[in-house]
């Protein structure tokens, strides 16, 4: 088993989290500020190779009624291109409520508003990854 990389794909930022080598613990990695489609894909593929990632997991934003939204389509399009460049399938995890959960965690940790915006995406990616790790057990 190798590392697992999780993505919280947004229009402006992508939150990134990575597991330990045993695939047990999810750790926040970084918040990547998007540049353009090609550079974003290249960055993630290179990061995955550098970190010896076996699996990439992406949050899939759906509406509360489990229907696809415009953002769902954007994430699917991004993941399709990522799969082409990486050469492997990306696993989707339902990400409803992850950003809200991340905001709550940061509020409870007394993180200042300006600082929350900088880290909320990587915290959301960590929640997505922890969800995947728990489902996999």
Main β-sheet: number of strands, strand sense, barrel status? 5 strands, mixed
Lateral arrangement of strands in the main beta sheet: 3-2-1-4-5
Helix content: 40-55%
Q: Overall 3D geometry? A: globular
What does this protein look like?
This protein has 137 residues and is α/β, with parallel strands linked by helices. The chain has four helices and five strands, in the order E-E-E-H-E-H-E-H-H. The protein has a five-stranded mixed beta sheet with strand order 3-2-1-4-5, with helices on both faces. Helix 1 (37-50) packs across helix 2 (70-86) and helix 3 crosses helix 4 (113-136).
List descriptors.
137 residues, 4 helices, alpha/beta, 5-stranded mixed beta sheet, 5 strands
Topology:
Layout: E1 3-9, E2 13-19, E3 26-33, H1 37-50, E4 53-60, H2 70-86, E5 91-94, H3 98-108, H4 113-136
Parallel strand pairs: 1-4, 4-5
Antiparallel strand pairs: 1-2, 2-3
Helix pairs in contact: 1-2, 3-4
Structure in a nutshell:
The protein is α/β, with parallel strands linked by helices and 137 residues long.
């Amino acid at each position: 088993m190798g590392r697992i990389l999780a993505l919280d794909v947004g229009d402006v930022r992508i939150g990134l989290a990575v597991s330990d080598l045993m695939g047990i613990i999810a750790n926040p990695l970084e918040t990547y500020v998007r540049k353009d489609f090609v550079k974003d894909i290249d960055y993630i593929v290179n990061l995955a190779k550098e970190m010896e990632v076996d699996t990439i997991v992406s949050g899939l934003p759906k509406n509360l009624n489990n229907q696809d939204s415009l953002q769902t389509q954007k994430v699917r399009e991004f993941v399709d291109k990522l799969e082409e460049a990486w050469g492997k399938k990306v696993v989707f995890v339902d990400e409803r409520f992850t950003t809200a959960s991340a905001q709550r965690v940061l509020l409870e940790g007394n993180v200042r508003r300006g600082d929350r915006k900088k880290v909320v995406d990587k915290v959301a990616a960590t929640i997505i990854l922890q969800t995947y790790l728990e489902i996999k057990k």
